[in-house]
Write a structure and sequence with these properties.
7 strands; about 45% helix; globular; alpha/beta; Rossmann fold
Length: about 280
C-alpha cells in the first residue's frame, strides 16, 4: 500500500490510554483530527485523559478493560460494533513491567505479564481485524520495546512478551501484505512514564535495592511521552514497518545487530547491574 496514512476524520482505538505513551498518543491523535476510542483498566486515569479532550470538542469514547481478560476484550469488540464506530487505527499499547531474575519471579506474575503484554495484543488484533477489514484502509500498531530487540538479564518475562509482539507483528505484516491493512511495530527506549516505577519489584529485593533501582530508572527514562507519541504517529503516517523511539533504542538496536551474541556485555553500563531487574524501557 502506497501513500501516507491520514488521521483526520478517522477513528483510532488506543489501549493503555490512561497514562504514559497511551495518553500522549490520545492527545496527539486528537490534535491530528482523529476520533478516539480509549481503553484501560484504570477508570479514573482514563477519564482524566478523556475529559479535557472532550471539553476541547473531540469525539472520545472510553472503555474500562483488563487486557488480561479475554472475555473483556471480546466484550469491547462487541460494544464498539454496537456503537457503529468504524476502526481505522488500532494501537495495542497497554502493558506492564516485571523485574527480577527468571528463577525468582513468581510464575503467576510471569503469566499475567504475558497475558497483558503479548496475549492482549494478539486477542485485540483478532477481535478487531474484521472491523479493520471493513474500512477503506486501516493500520495496526503493536508497541513492543527495545527489550523486544535485546534481552537483558532480569527482564525474562518482559523480553519474552516483547519479542513475541515483534514476531507476531512481523508475521501479521507478511500475511496482510497487499491488503488494505498495514502493520507497524514500535520499539521505544527510555520514555519517561510510570510503567517501570509501578512494576512489581524483584523478589527478595531490599528497600535500599528497590530505591536504587528506581533512581537509576528515572535517570534512564528521559524522553517525554509527548515526543514519543509524535515520533510514533509520524512513522505510522509514513507506513513505516518498524519505529525505534529514542537515541538509546537506536543504539541498542545497532549493538544487537553488530554483536548479536555479545551485546549484553557492552550495554550493562546502560541498564545497570544484573540484579536491578526493575528497569524496563517504557511503553505504556
Amino acid at each position: 500500500m502506497s501513500g501516507r496514512f491520514g488521521y483526520a476524520g478517522r477513528t483510532a482505538l488506543v489501549t493503555g490510554a490512561a497514562s504514559g505513551i497511551g495518553a500522549a498518543l490520545a492527545a496527539e491523535l486528537a490534535a491530528r483530527g482523529a476520533h478516539l476510542i480509549l481503553a484501560d483498566i484504570n477508570a479514573e486515569g482514563l477519564e482524566a485523559v478523556a475529559e479535557p479532550l472532550r471539553q476541547s470538542g473531540h469525539a472520545v469514547a472510553t472503555h474500562v478493560v483488563d487486557m488480561a481478560d479475554a472475555a473483556a476484550i471480546t466484550g469491547l469488540a462487541k460494544a464498539v460494533e454496537a456503537a457503529g464506530e468504524p476502526i481505522h487505527l488500532l494501537i495495542n499499547n497497554a502493558g506492564i513491567a516485571l523485574g527480577g531474575l527468571f528463577e525468582e519471579v513468581d510464575m503467576a506474575d510471569f503469566e499475567r505479564l504475558l497475558d497483558i503484554n503479548l496475549y492482549g495484543v494478539i486477542r485485540m488484533t483478532r477481535a478487531f481485524l474484521p472491523r479493520l477489514r471493513a474500512v477503506d484502509e486501516a493500520h495496526i500498531v503493536n508497541v513492543s520495546s527495545i527489550f523486544g530487540i535485546v534481552a537483558p538479564a532480569g527482564q525474562a518475562a518482559y523480553s519474552t512478551a516483547k519479542f513475541g509482539v515483534k514476531g507476531f507483528s512481523n508475521a501479521l505484516r507478511h500475511e496482510l501484505a497487499g491488503s488494505s491493512i498495514s502493520v507497524t511495530t514500535v520499539h521505544p527506549g527510555g520514555v519517561s512514564t510510570n510503567i517501570a516505577a509501578s512494576a512489581k519489584p524483584p523478589p527478595g529485593a531490599s528497600e535500599a535495592e528497590i530505591a536504587a533501582a528506581k533512581k537509576q530508572t528515572q535517570r534512564l527514562l528521559v524522553m517525554p511521552p509527548a515526543e514519543a507519541a509524535r515520533i510514533i504517529l509520524d512513522g505510522v503516517a509514513r507506513r513505516k514497518p518498524r519505529i525505534f523511539v529514542g537515541r538509546d533504542a537506536h543504539t541498542m538496536m545497532w549493538l544487537e545487530r553488530l554483536f548479536p551474541t555479545r551485546y549484553w556485555s557492552l550495554m550493562q553500563s546502560m541498564v545497570g547491574a544484573r540484579r536491578s531487574g526493575s528497569k524496563a524501557p517504557s511503553k505504556g
